Amino acid sequence: MQVRPHISTSLRRCAHWTGSPGVAKHREVRERPAHGCHYFVGVLLLSGWAIFVIATSRSLGTLGTVLSAAVIGTGIWLLADIGMVRAGSATAITWLALVALAILLAIGLSWAHIWRRLSGQIEVDEVND
């Protein structure tokens, strides 16, 4: 006989999306109202996205963001054109958009390091007194 660890009811309601054993089926979970942990996780995710987007926009600027998005988009288009990526369904297009966004944010977050390696220049912030 296998002993399951005790999970409190409130924790079980918060962790239903993790697929924990003993948790209600997905259609039953949708009928439940959102709890405090859902809002907490949502605020954490929103904060993370805000930090990533602000860092990307400050690092690349508007023109750099547009150019990077264009390069990533045409790269995905090229991969779809030669048959390496299939974009025949809404799910596939969603995954491609998520991958493109992740690549863009990764470039934006690491652009200062990339620029320092390419140019040898160290960024210095000027302080106005």
Which helices and strands occur, and which strands form pairs?
Elements: H1 9-14, H2 26-29, H3 36-81, H4 90-119
Helix pairs in contact: 3-4
Quick structural overview:
The protein is mainly alpha-helical.
Write down the Rg: 22 Å
| End-to-end separation | 71 Å
Secondary structure tally, helices: 4
Percent in strands: under 5%
Number of strands: 0
What does the largest sheet look like?
none
Coarse morphology = flat
Uncertain spans, ≥5 residues at pLDDT below 50? Answer: none
Counting helices, strands and paired strands, the structural category is mainly alpha
Helix content: 55-70%
What do you see in this structure?
The protein is mainly α and about 130 residues long. It has helices at about 10-15, 25-30, 35-80, 90-120. The protein has a domain at about 50-120. It contains four helices and no strands. Helix 3 (about 35-80) packs across helix 4. The protein is flat and about 55 Å long. The mean pLDDT is about 80.
